[in-house]
Each structure stands twice: as C-alpha cells, then as structure tokens.
Amino acid sequence: MAAPLTDNKFIQPIIDWLDERVPLTEAIKFAGKKEVPVHKHSFWYYMGGIAMLFLGIQFVTGFLLMFHYVASFEEAYASVQRINMEVPFGWLIRSMHSWGANLFVLVLFIHMFSTYFMKAYRSPREFTWLSGLGLLGIAMLFGFTGYMLPLDEIAYFATKVGVDVAGEAPFVGPYVANFVLGSGNIGLDNGALVAGTGAIGQVTVNRFFALHVIALPLAMIGLAGLHMMLIQLQGISEPESIQKLPQKEKKYEKFFPDFIIKDVFIWIAVTVGFLMIVTMSPWHLGPPADPAAAAPLGIRPEWYFLSQFQALKLFPSHMLFFEGVHVAMVAIGATMASLVVVPILDSTGKNQFISKFATVYGIIFLIGWIILTIWGWVS
Amino acid sequence: MFPVWEVPNTGSGWIIGLTAILHVFISHFAIGGGAFLAFTEQLAYKKQDDRIYDYLKKHTKFFLLLTTVLGAVSGVGIWWAIGLASPNGTQTLLQNFSLFWAVEYVFFAVELAILMAYYYTWDKVDRKTHLKLAWMYIGVSYFTLFAINGILTFMLTSGGWNYQAGNIGDAFFNPGFWPALGLRSFIMLALAGIFALFTISRLKGMDDVKAYMLKYSAKWMLPALILGPLFVVSYLFVLPDATQQVIINGLSSIGEGNFSVMAKAIFLALTFAVGLFGMVLVGPYLNPKAFNTSFAAMCLAAGFGFMFMEEWSREMMRKPFVVYNYMYSNGLRTHEIDKVNNDGYFNYNKFALAEKTTLASSDEVGEGQLMFRYQCTSCHTATGNGYRSMTRMLGERDEDAIKNLITLMKDNHKIDPETGLAKTMYHGYMPPVVGHQDELDALAKYLVTLNTKPDTETSVAAAQVVPGV
Questions:
Q1: According to a count of CB atoms within 10 Å of the terminal CB, is the N or C end of chain B lower?
Q2: Helix and strand tally (H, E) in chain B?
Q3: Do B21 and B132 lie in a common domain?
Q4: What is the model's pTM?
C-alpha cells in the first residue's frame, strides 16, 4: 500500500478504499512531481484553464438547453422564446451559453497569441500547437452552427451571409452550400457545380443541430484530450527569456496542489465576472426570422469572423482573370495557413532570422486581425 | 422646494450613488480596519512578535492615507451631491437629526485625531499605551457608524416616526436599526480582512509571517459568512410591506427572465459574496504561499462588487421615496399631494414658478419642460440612451397615450379601498404626478417631443456586402 497522503483519520480510509480500485495516490504523486515555471509571464498560463472553464460551462448549459430546444425550422424560435420567458432560469442558462460561446472563443484567441509569442509551439510541442489551432477552429464552427439555432432575424440572415460567402469558395464552396442548404439547392451552371438559390430551411437546422450537439462536441473532446495529454507529457513550456536563465535563478511551483488551487481561484473570479455580464446584459433574442422579408441593414457575422468578412470586402470584384472573391478567399486561407507554416519553420528556434521573423509576423498578424475586426464592426 | 440639478445621460442619482458606494466601501474599512489594527496589535503584543509589528506599521500608513484622504474626500462628495440632487431630502435629515449629525461630526474629528496619534506614535510610546490608542479608535469610529446607521435606516424604515410629533428617538432607533447595524458590522470586519490581504501580499522578504498573516486575515471573513445571512433575513423582515412585495415580485420573476433591476442587484450581491468567500478560501487560506498582489486585488474588486450591489439594492428598496412614506425622491411630501393638486404645481414650487415667468404665456412645451425638470429629473433623463431616458420609457406613445398615462400616474400613491390593492402598477415604483390639469397637459405636450418617433424608414434589402455574392 502507498504511503498515506494525510494524517486525517476520516479522509485517509476513503483514500485507501479508492486506492484499491484506482491509482489515486499514484496520480496525486505524479501531479505533485509536475512543475509549473514561475516568472513574470506566468499569468498567461491561466488562459488554458479559463478556456477549459468556459468549455465546461458550454457543455453543461448546452445540455440543459437541449431539454427545451426544438430543432425545427418552424418551432425553434418559439422554443427559445419559451426558454427565455417560461422555463425557470432558462434566460440565465441561454444567456450563459451565448455569452460563454463568445468568451470561450475570445479566451482561445488570447491563449493562442500568448503561446505564440512565448514560442510554445517549438519542438517538441508542434502537435500541441496544431491541436490548439484545431480546437480554435472547432470553437468557431461551434459558434457558427449555434448562432443560427434560435432562428431569430439576425441569426438567420447572418448565417445566410456566411453560407453565401462559404458557397463562393473555390472548388469546395458549392459542396459546403449543398451540405448546409440540402441537395435540392444545388445545380449545374454551364457544367459547373454551383450553389442554388434556396433558402436556409429545415435541412440546415437538422444539419447545424447535428453538428452542434454531436459531431463538434465529440471532435472537441477528442482533440482537447489530446491537447491536454500532450501538455501533461511534455510539461509547460518556458518563454525564451526564462529558458536562458541559469537553473538556480529559475522558480517553479508544484502543479498539484499549488497551481491547481490558483487555477480554481481564477475560475471563481472569472465565473463571478461572467455572471455579472450575463445578469446585467442577458443575451438578446430578436424578432423571428422571416425568410420572405428583406435582410435588415448592417447584417454581419459574429465578431470572430469579422476580420475575414472585412478582408473580403476590401477586394475588388475582379482581379485580372479571377473573381475578386476567389482571390480574397485564397488570400485569407493562406493567412490562416501561415499559423501552421510559420511555427513549423521556427520549430527548432535555432535560426535567429526565422525566430525574429516569426515574432514580427505574429505582431503584424495580431495588429491586422484587431484592426480588421474593429473595422468590420464599425463599418 | 429648491432648484433642480439636471445631469444629462446618467441622472443625478448616479452621481450620488457612485460617490456614496465608494465612500461606504472606504468608510466601512475605516471602522473594521480599526478593529483589525487593535486585534492584530493585541496579537503581536501577546506573541511579542516584531515581524507582526513591522507589518502593522506598514498597514497603518496605508490605512491612514486611504481612509483620511479618499474616505474623507468621498464623504464630502456625498454632501455635495445630495445637497444638489436631493436638497429637500437633505434638509429633512439635517433638521430631524441635527444633534446626531453634530455628535457624529465630533466623533469623526476625534477618530481622525486618534488615528494620527496612533500612526505617529509607533515606537515613540510603549507598546501597551500604543495598544490603548487602537482600542480607543475602535470605540470612537464605531460610534460614527452607530450614528449614521440610525439616519440611513430611518430613510427606509421610519417606523413610528411622525413629522408632526417629531419623535426623534423613534426615528433613530427605527425597526431597521439593529439588523442593519449587525450586518454592517460584519461587512466591515470582512472588508478589514480583504484590505489586509492586499497589504500583506505586498510584503517582501517576510515569507513565514506573510503566510501566517494571510491565513489570519482570511479568517476575518468568517463572522460575515456565519452570521451575515441571519442579519440579512432579519433586515428583510422589518422592511415596509410594499418594499417586501417589490422584492418578492422581483425575485419570483427572476426565473422567467422578467425580473427587476433590484432582483438583479440582489442576485449579483449574492454572487459576489459567494465568489469572494470561495476566492478567500482557495487563495490566502488554502494556498497562502502563492497568494500575490494580483489575487489580492481581485479579492478587493469582488468586495467592491458586493458593496456596490448591496448598496444599490438597498437604495432601490426605498424607491420611490427619499424618506419612506414621507418624502418622494423628487422632494414631494406625501401629505402635500392633495394641496398641490388643488393649488397647482407652480404655486407649490416657487423656483419652478420663477422660471415659468421667463416663458411666453403660450409656451406650453416650455411649461411642460419645467414640470418634467422639477418632478421627473431626479430619476429620469430626457433623451437618448441616458439613464431611464424618457425617449426609451415612452416608446412610440403619442400625445393622447401620454395624457392617459399621466392621468393614470396621478393615482400612483393610492390604494383601492375595496380591493386593498394598489390603484396603478407604478405604485411602489414611482411618485404620483401632481398639478393642475392644464399643467399636466403641458407636461404631456413636452413629453411628446421626447417620444420615439414611429419608424418611417422602409426596410431596405441588404446590399451585396462582398464581391460576387
């Protein structure tokens, strides 16, 4: 039997009982051996934990919303209205889910940029970085599919704009449109497969709902599991400036219980702030969608798609022999791909020029992303 | 009556509110922090631990600067704000409680003197004498809370007080006095602990005593955790029936999402309190070695959040009165309603009358604007997205609809004798609108200039926003 964890005569027998069935003491000792670097940038280490908190909130509130949400083009809006007005604390759960989705994506962006600038993508952590990018992509897809489900006016038309844009993507666009709108909405135009003129309908609701509650959660759990397993195996990375320090000048703290308790402290603080936002500004439900009506002015996607949306608007209709939208989408795709390529180029960290280039590129990317997002918001 | 102070966008109420909440936060620390100084110095004396003494000297400097500068300035700020925003209410409190204000002021001056003596006599007098100064500070500062608490609670639970009898003892020791005193006492002890966490977290090179002191300070939350809820409940029981009903209505509809702003504030006060206890438990109590200034600042922010919500909800409980059942928030006294309706508002309010004489006799909108300024701007702003702006409140109501609304609101204070129920849905939320019919018609004419004009724009099809789409 393992050495006792505590002197408490009430708790230790419980631990012993559990130890016979699961390797609890071993797990605790393993966690105790793990160390977290302590330095002036340590604050950014909390972002992963905060993202996990929001992911948990999304799962719990999403699960509760499913008790009342009706995935029907005709009834979805009324069911969300019932959740808001009749279901006990339904407004709170829905508001937490909607606000939580946005904050989850925001925290993931912060987490991504902070790990990028701390060069946490370097060898041997390339897969951790790539799995993190994948998680951000899934989170944005979660947002896109979930945004439409209440089927209020804004959700409907913003989704329509999103689908129209995605439908214009070279090669895959029509297939995306086909998937979202249903096969009845796709046709041939001069031999080319193009998106039809059909509107968002029951097929879209079915498919978005299936993606939102089954496919994306499974993908998220799987990828998040891999991401966290890699972090546990490889340990938490140190920024370059800390790595250079002599060992005796470096400070560490135990992952368990010291860092975990701090994580819990941050979770409580974030939850309090989150509940304040949710209560003071419950998530709005607009008028029901009317597919026959004209789209309201100023329709735009969720904030985390605004940079791409604004970039699309900056391209002219035609560029040489190409459609402007096709060139724009290739350019946007290439920019996103750079988040994979640049870290891989800098994965060894040995080439100083590439290392500096990666930092400068990250700064330009971040500033550009912020400017385009704000521009998209105000324009 | 007095002239009005019109504050665009926020309304004058928020100027008082923000100043008062900041002051309450600091002043509760000024009293609880005094207890912290005394008990902690007692601890240092008992243990003869110089490290605790060293910490206390640093803490005293912080305490002195914060309470005497920010506390005193915000206190003066309250007088300035209430004098401008609610002169009638201020006048009532001054006239009724002159003696208490005077005594409170004397004690406040003594409190400051003792604090100065306490700070400047570290290491200059023997430890036992210095400790006596701390105990004296507690007694004197607590009395200031005792005095203010009687006046504050009178405004909500005036109990057996009657303005004609002037029975000031009943006014001071009103039904809300003891529950509120108990509750505030626990809050101030908790705040003393939270502020101490902040100053301890800034200590450098005193790791062993730091951990000990963090745990010690965290325990100052315990009285509020254990006994606070009891006093909250006892306070709720002594509130006026109508206020209790407003709370019950607000909380009972919280589940359906129609809940009132007051219910939101109560819910958030509870959220901040629970969150704060959780943070203090997992922070300084369970993991003192990792507790740093950033965490301490978060605890302080949560404490301020609690105080903000608690004071905000308390203010809303008193609505629509400044002094419950005696004076409305716009300065109108309850026993003068019939007189004003008979004589006319401009004959009642000489300042409004003076301004009216500058208007052309045919300027009904101008007259209505004066009615609005004197009767409504203590709670409402006029246009835009301002606090409780009339543009938002009126919606698209036309002049007839506004006139009907005003007619209805003349009875806001009445109870139907047959049913025993309020005559209007605004009872308990708004004062009655008072004045002659022609004055009320003028008010309607002005209000219709503020309403949201029906949307004349036709829906426009969304333009193509991206190339080729």
A1: C
A2: 20, 2
A3: yes
A4: 0.87
